[in-house]
């Protein structure tokens, strides 16, 4: 039986933190939720929707007496928040987060919460959405979704187990890996596709007749470039935060494109078929494994 | 009033040709449809579904007395078919096709039907689907879809007008451009996205932990790589058929990726934001123009 949280504090009260709160409330695993944020309208909406019980603008005051603090802001704001809350955390308070890069967040824990590392459980719930804000929070967001925890060497088994059990109570499937592995995996299957899609769009825009080209773009283009419409500031931050893993994979994409260009220039039909076939087989197998996506 | 076709012959009786036939039948613009194909089961199914009225294995015999011949096979089979039918076409018979590359198909018309060029109307209906075969044919496939016609200098206004009106009767929006422009446009927004997606998949597969990476791939990956699951033979043919336009655009993608790599290596946050912003704005504008795709 998972121990219930008396006081949960959300630093940042958007989709990710809000849905975490709603799921824990439904599971009766939390008594009081305090939401901290800079946007008053969003906090008011969060109270109306019962995502939080109490709103606050002051992280330092809010975390006093908390059992669990969830950092749900963009990673770029987490360091300043950690610095603010550090002197006010109870000795037993667990700190976790929803940041989508983990080596940099682990560094922030080390820098700003050096005395609390045994209670820190870096995490990454994989549940992106185009929506944001407290009003986008839903009870079932984490049902069947993956959550990756990347514990620090100092994180105690007890802290880790609590965060794991809370996510499981939200319906999530919890994985553990080190932050380096995490960042490599997400560079490969999330960050780099975004960047390749941005680069592709800019290649189209560099054409003299780009407007005519875009006029004839169909469903293949639509799907391939959907992620190219993502938020620039968010993706600049992710890109710079996960620089080394991303650079390695982007260079590997250049190598692959160069190999493909060579095959086409040689008119090497057999090798070209094999090249496409390898990609196509792997993509089809992935889709089947995920029930025909 | 569009002149009705007494005898339409489909060379290749799959989704594209079959849906053309169904739409013309519904518009009462065709009296008899003969379907030619190598797959007996598919032809039987085409008759059952009233996609065609008569099945044949012999292109030369089938086209006798035809008013319109539609080449609906992969481009790689079109040359041999043209050679077979050339001596048997009536003087008034219009020949058109559904090939997705056009410079190479125009060359085939010149090579195999040099005496009938005034009646030849190369075309490209933009209505891809994962499905294939006569049983995938539907009445409404071309409703609101684009069809590009790339007339030869020899094509008469009358031949062009007839094919244009038939496609319009299918509900399609008809455009005209020369074959070179067509191939450039579709390299940019269809062929190259497929190839970049293949290259990306192969970059993931080249990683030591590719299985682990694919395990954490989410909706961004799903959409970005959907076209990577496309048919290898079909895409080898398209790639080799449209080599020069494709090579130019692939090289432009390498240039863009290299520029992006440089920005990341420099940690140039402002330029990186501007780079992503340009792509993101353009993609969002495209999506809005197409009613939020």
TrEMBL record, chains A, B:
InterPro entries: 6-PGluconate_DH-like_C_sf, NAD(P)-bd_dom_sf, PDH_C, PDH_N, Preph/Arog_dehydrog, Prephen_DH. Its EC number is 1.3.1.12. The keyword Cell membrane does not apply. The keyword Oxidoreductase applies. One of its GO terms (molecular function) is prephenate dehydrogenase (NADP+) activity. PROSITE patterns: PDH_ADH (PS51176). Residues 6-293 form the Prephenate/arogenate dehydrogenase domain. Transmembrane segments: none annotated. GO terms for biological process: tyrosine biosynthetic process. It comes from the Bacteria. Belongs to the prephenate/arogenate dehydrogenase family. This is prephenate dehydrogenase.
